[in-house]
Amino acid sequence: MIRTIDKSIYTATTVTTGGREGTGTSSDGALDVALSLPGSGGRGTNPEQLLAVGYSACFLGAMRRVKTADHTRVPDDASIEAQVTLGVAGDGGFALAVRLKVDLPGLSDAQKWALVDGAHDLCPYSLALRGNIEIELAIG
């Protein structure tokens, strides 16, 4: 089932030139990045790093919106280490995999999982990627 938008909240507009060895800029000027091939040592970032930052930021925001039975709040010092792996699939094409390691200091494992599982059901990145790529969720 395709999730459709009933009410727009925000639209990001970017222009990329040169592909993985080019540049990317946002229409508002807030983003202006050089792009480099992963592992090339080039001066720019790459799409996998951008996905890792975007997904982890969105996921952390989603955790703050999760309503748990015991009203658990996300600690101010919460963080997410995101790993996005680019690899070759069995059919010879490319594939992505994501691992999010969520650090929620001061919470029990049960509280952590309640927030993580709730965020995975709420986060737009999770909803878009789940069932399409491998996603591993872990707590620290």
UniProtKB/TrEMBL annotation:
Q: Which InterPro entries does this one have?
A: KH_dom-like_a/b, OHR, OsmC/Ohr_fam, OsmC/Ohrsf
Record Gene3D superfamilies: 2.20.25.10, 3.30.300.20
One of its Pfam families is: OsmC
GO biological process, alphabetically ordered: response to oxidative stress
Origin: domain of life: Bacteria
PANTHER family tied to this protein = ORGANIC HYDROPEROXIDE RESISTANCE PROTEIN-LIKE
To which protein family does this belong? Answer: Belongs to the OsmC/Ohr family.
Q: Which NCBIfam families match?
A: organ_hyd_perox
Protein name from the UniProt record: Peroxiredoxin
Q: Which organism is it from?
A: Piscinibacter gummiphilus
